[in-house]
Amino acid sequence: MKKTFSKTVTSLGLGVAVMMTMTNCGSKNEWKVKGSIDSAADQLVVLEASNNGYWYALDTISADKNGKFSFTREAAGYPDVYRLTIGDNSIYFPVDSIETVTITGSNGVVDIQGAESADAFMRVDKLVNDAVVKSGVTALNDSVLKRQIGQIILENPAGIAAYYAINKKVGDTPLFNVADKADLRIIGAVANAFNSQRPGDPRTTYLRSIYLSNRSSQTPGVTIEASELPFIDIDLLDRDGKSVKLSDIAGNGKVTLVCFTALTAEQSPALNLELGKIYSDLSPKGLQIYQVGFDQDEFAWRQSAKNLPWISVYNGATNGEVLMKYNVGSLPAMFILDRQGNLVERVDNMPNLRPLVNKYL
Length: 361
Hints:
- The protein is 30% helix and 28% strand.
- By secondary structure, the protein is an alpha+beta fold.
- The chain has three domains: 3-115, Immunoglobulin-like, CATH 2.60.40; 125-215; 232-360, Glutaredoxin (3-Layer(aba) Sandwich), CATH 3.40.30.10.
- Strand 13 (235-238) and strand 14 form a beta hairpin.
């Protein structure tokens, strides 16, 4: 089976256009990277892996006169980040499982066929590269850039692309600085997600230690502003016309379920019936619900929302900005924020909602 991604980006190392697809390597418990890059002709190609930021060589070969190379490695048992280094340039790529990554390049343009998470890698690299080309390394401190990459991280905070993003550097300058409270909150969201979803992953202990050791050095009792929270804030009016921010209720010691839906949709009564059962059982343990309505008719939404026991706010059907920021393509969609306000789960299957909420209570 093949899945195709058509994103095009510029790599920080080579200034290359990148396109990635996923192909299976076969039944062997191994993955392979191979290809042909004209600039690698008769050059050493080094395959490297990372031990939580420390890069080391796995293998080195000499490409032939056409720049052809091939490496085969035993599968690690979990997704990971690798890179090919040719001279002073490096190409970073993910390996999700057992697959073949094919890299071909000519005249500075490189096509990469590889892992499913490659799309997120490309978007991170493109955002960082574009910012650095425009404004230099100081662009890494730009809050807009951080928000954009934060959105990619929140798509799957337990994914290899999230790990890659929070460990990314340009030269010796990190994209996410542990000394910065806002950055540390993002690192904490990834550490939390890895801890809950990948307890056996060797990077989980590393992520937890980074977050906890640096969190303890910060001043107790500091106020975390909305812009520093590791989720995208929402500020909308409730059924009484009062502004209710997600950041006003999240991270206050309770687990928050963020639910995007249309209350007037056909499936909404069944959804709210199930939400009502969960809320009735779990709200005494610390569950709260922040439900966002994407209905065409505000009056009809208000009638549907007036008897709901949780927070319900109105967005309207024509304003899709919030859905875009949370990468939501269809309704309903639900996200879980833990007691510290970290976005830790995206719930795509209603039967999974109750056990997932229970994990954080």
